[in-house]
């Protein structure tokens, strides 16, 4: 008797709950739909499409496609031009990442020095490149690098140095682009490094002080190890940024002189969009570049964590 | 800083905050360190000047008459100054149109990103539904996909749709992104559950709760997202470069590129720098007004990493 009177209620309860669940599921997907459509159409679908394009030769003007298999990849891996672009990308990374992060940490250490009054002007002046676009960074430095009337060579002249023609010199062009990119990234890097420094608990320093550690020792044995999660984040992000550099190169050198500053991204752009278009070949390069970038960002989620000290 | 402050012990980089001392003795701070402090302040100011020098050079150059720029680069630091370069830039190339395009493109992207992030972030934080983890993985996974991989197929798709040289073409691929969704989900998650329960008991719908409770309480995160989206969209380069070839649809960044590149031999640097200053102005203004939120938001992204 008791059971028969209870069961219908439970059953009714369960269907009601199921119905409510279904209604909630439907509502949830309605809220998610706009975002999922955008990500699906413009992020996920292009991954497959990009790979498909890379296996085909696409007619420069028109839709005709010939299946090549891995022909583009074979061609790339045996072409000196491709390896030049890879080496430009890597040299660019070597030039920007350690210097950029080193400078940022040094400035952040200074900024976190105990002062009675923090000046608003300092931070504003140091953080400001964070809002500069790659195009504007390119334009500003193109002016500074002007061989005859630009400020850099004018100032070098004052100390008796005859500055080179920075952007058309094979020797200096990549360096010049590197400086512009390090400059644009500096604001961001300092902000992240400073945030990391402020996470470190003061008690560590107090303890070290009691033990008689000098300022240099405190930085080496406390600050840097405890900053390592932040440093690791900075390395990953900066490596990715450096592999993606495009705007400054486009405005400063357009990949030249010769191909001295043509990195992989620029080469994808040139092959895919300038003159005769080779979208299949460009896609193959984009795919190889993406593999490098994904590989680096993957490190952020795995493995490396073990080498990093957390408080 | 009440309900709008960041969750999980996010560092407050605001300027009036007591700074960590790196172990310096607080009593020493008042006496012995005076000269050291002065030295630090001076070197920070010098570093600041050096860092912002390229921007200062651009601004000063933009106000200096061209003959003086050409005669001596260092003459820019002293008057007489003039607005001539701005007039030249504004009339020699359709800068007004470029700025309008940039504002429209940036406005659409920013508004849409904030809305799609609010909706999706709310769904992930508040609803339990089948496939939630999978959908969340799809959203986060998109962070790993570099733009370089997607822009050729996206270009082909947008061109096939006939959207090249339109605001649709400029904006549609960027109407949602994982960063915004993740950021707002985190904020909605830490809202007190009691609030939600109380609202439910009072018969409030999810829609009402979202707009009257969750969104107002997440103002800090939403304004940070707005600032990021604005800066990101305004500063876009590669996509607007390839998706527009009609001059009247160029954004400000692309406009300045062609303004520079098209002046082959005798570049009018005064006008170029005036153009560059115009293009920087909106982001500079945002930086000066919202430095605190911007810096805090960036710091957050680093600590989350």
Number of helical regions of chain B: 15
The secondary structure category of chain B is mainly alpha
Largest interface: A-B, 119 and 113 residues
State mean pLDDT of chain B (0 to 100 scale): 84
Please describe the biggest sheet of chain B, giving its number of strands, its sense, and whether it closes into a barrel: none
**Which regions of chain B have little confidence, pLDDT < 50, spanning 5+ residues?**
1-20
Which labels suit this protein?
heterodimer; A: 311 residues; mainly alpha; MetI-like fold; 2 domains; two-stranded antiparallel ribbon; 2% strand; flat; B: 305 residues; 15 helices; disordered N terminus
What's the layout of helices and strands?
The complex is a heterodimer of chains A (311) and B (305).
Chain A: H1 2-54, E1 56-58, E2 65-67, H2 71-77, H3 80-111, H4 120-127, H5 134-144, H6 151-158, H7 173-199, H8 202-210, H9 215-243, H10 247-252, H11 264-273, H12 279-301
Helix pairs in contact in A: 1-12, 3-7, 3-9, 5-7, 7-9, 9-12, 11-12
Chain B: H1 26-30, H2 34-62, H3 66-71, H4 84-92, H5 95-126, H6 132-141, H7 147-160, H8 167-171, H9 178-189, H10 193-201, H11 206-217, H12 219-234, H13 238-243, H14 252-261, H15 269-304
Helix pairs in contact in B: 2-15, 4-15, 5-9, 5-12, 5-14, 12-15, 14-15
Description:
The complex is a heterodimer of chains A (311) and B (305). With 311 residues, chain A is an all-alpha fold. Chain A has two domains: 2-54; 73-307, MetI-like fold. Chain A contains twelve helices and two strands. In chain A, strands 1-2 form a two-stranded antiparallel ribbon. In chain A, a hairpin with a 6-residue loop joins strand 1 (56-58) and strand 2 (65-67). In chain A, helix 5 crosses helix 7 (173-199). The longest helix of chain A has 53 residues, at 2-54. The model of chain A is unreliable at 1-7 (pLDDT under 50). Chain B is mainly α and 305 residues long. Chain B has two domains: 32-87, no CATH class; 93-262, MetI-like fold. Helices cover 69% and strands 0% of the residues of chain B. Chain B has 15 helices and no strands. In chain B, helix 14 crosses helix 15 (269-304). The radius of gyration of chain B is 24 Å and the shape is globular. Mean pLDDT of chain B is 84; it is low at 1-20. At the A-B interface, helix 1, helix 3, helix 4, helix 5 and helix 7 of A face helix 1, helix 2, helix 5, helix 6 and helix 7 of B.
